[in-house]
Amino acid sequence: MKHTLLIVPGLGDSTTGHWQDNWLQHFPNTKKVVQNNWNQPQLQDWLKNLDATINSIETPVVIVAHSLAVSLVTHWSQQNDTSKIAGALLVAPADVESSKHTPEETWNFAPIPLNKLNYPSIVISSSNDPYISVERAEFLANKWESLFYNVGPKGHLNFESQLGLWEEGQQILESLLQSITK
Where does the source fall among the domains of life (predicted)? Predict the structure, then answer.
């Protein structure tokens, strides 16, 4: 069964040099959610764009979300039919409930839904992510009934982390894809 990888960037977009942008260029059958305002995100606007993008895809969808987009995806999953979602890779969730960890423009994405996700998922976090503690990321993964990977001290797993094509992330994605096709 053919899947579409859906790249869902967070605050500020995942532009040139970010592993999400590299994956968009590297993998066939990949699409990206485009938001109208990357720097002043509004949950309802972002939800509409995510929903419209998912509805435009005819194959099963594997979500690849980063940072603020992880909260976006969990909100969307609570409000919509998720039968088209084959799985999700949820990378470096941002703790939008914590003023210590996230900027004010992201707080309208709180509270983070804690319901079990209705599809296989993996949460990946770094042990020194400035936008969430590794304990909080693991707590969220447990609530969502997601597998959890701590990839060590690699920051926010964003442009500054200089991950290139992020081979480690690709291996984790491959494990998710294998679990979906079994």
Answer: Bacteria
Residue boundaries of the structural domains of the chain: 4-181
Separation of alpha carbons 157 and 19, rounded Å: 8
Q: Which of the listed CATH numbers 3.40.30.10, 3.40.50.1820, 3.40.630.30, 3.30.450.20 matches domain 4-181? A: 3.40.50.1820
List, in sequence order, every residue forming a beta bridge with 4; answer none if it has no partner: 61
State the amino acid at position 80 in one-letter form.
N
Cα–Cα nearest to 121, from 156, 149, 95, 94: 149
User: Encoding tokens for residue 32?
Assistant: 């990206």
Nearest to 158 by CA among 182, 126, 133, 134: 126
Phi, psi of 92 (to 5 degrees): 50, 60
50-104 tens-digit pLDDT: 999 999 999 999 999 999 999 999 999 999 999 999 999 999 999 999 999 999 9
Question: How many Cβ atoms are within 10 Å of 92's Cβ, its own excluded?
Answer: 27
Cα→Cα distances 175→38, 152, 166, 178, Å: 30, 19, 15, 5
